[in-house]
Amino acid sequence: MSALTIPGTHDSAAYTNAWPFIQTQRMDILGQLNAGIRYLDLRCGLRDDLVEMVHGSAILGLKLSKLLDIMYLWLMSHPSEALVVQVKQDRKSERSTVHFSQAIWCCIAQAPERWRTANTTPVLGELRGKIQLFRRFTGPTLHAYGIDVTQWQDNPTRPFTIYTWHAVQLTIQDHYRPADAEAESLPSLIAKKDGDVVELLDNANANVDPAHWYLNFTSAYEFNLWYQLSPREVAVGGYWAFRWEGGINPRLREYLRTRKGKRRYGIVAMDFPDTGADDLIAILITSNNEQASDLDRTWRRLFVMTIWLALVATVTLTTLKIRQQLGLGSSLI
């Protein structure tokens, strides 16, 4: 699985609240799956012993159990597909008598056949019809439960690598906000984030180790005294000084368009991936397959045309010879 390009979403459940600094998606979970998303980033909180979907301090009005039911039904109708789901505890538990990790375990235990909670990297064949857990929460007895990404760094300016106890390596780019002392205009923030994303895309494709995971978050925002730039503006683009500034999504689309052939980019977790570049998810998926370059396609067209013209010429000459032998003349008209 780590050798593939996997389209994903950041804060996958943040589609119920339209406030600009909470919403990160336009599609619901089912829509994301149908569109080709195969990595989901689920941020959770525990209230009254129930696991709810959150985005920081915001309650999104969704229960984790409901989202899991949607995934299970979708996998039943798409048994050859595989999902990677990261579960993160994104806020402290409230009015609860159980530990967060226990509540998650109870949710997963409702359909254990749909989960792979091993701490190693699976191959695609063994994950078909199932969900690989990326665990971004701690607990008293979770040493071997899911792939452990609890060493995740918060807003690092450079990519970092997690080395798990079970020989899994994950390199992550998740620089989502300028430092407090910095103030970035929309063009500057998009350009710097684009550089972060492209750097890890190049690194992932250049690494010959197929077992090394790459997680590349294209999301960013800014909220300070000088600028208030929402996740959607960074992802899709916006007007700045009376000029449209394209966001990360169209820039990523252009990057992928100019690089043909089979490539490994790892997990690419996006905000609003269906907006700003309509075929972005599809292009990420096709990077897993061999693709002919524009030059290859041109030569193939020329070859086919040459063969066709040769066939037409052969048929024409043969017809003329037959007509001459029958005394019908050499004109085909």
Automatic annotation (TrEMBL):
Gene3D superfamilies: Phosphatidylinositol (PI) phosphodiesterase (3.20.20.190). InterPro entries: PI-PLC_domain (IPR051057), PLC-like_Pdiesterase_TIM-brl (IPR017946). One of its GO terms (molecular function) is phosphoric diester hydrolase activity. PROSITE patterns: PIPLC_X_DOMAIN. Pfam families: PI-PLC_X. It comes from the Eukaryota. GO terms for biological process: lipid metabolic process. This is Phosphatidylinositol-specific phospholipase C X domain-containing protein. It comes from Friedmanniomyces endolithicus.
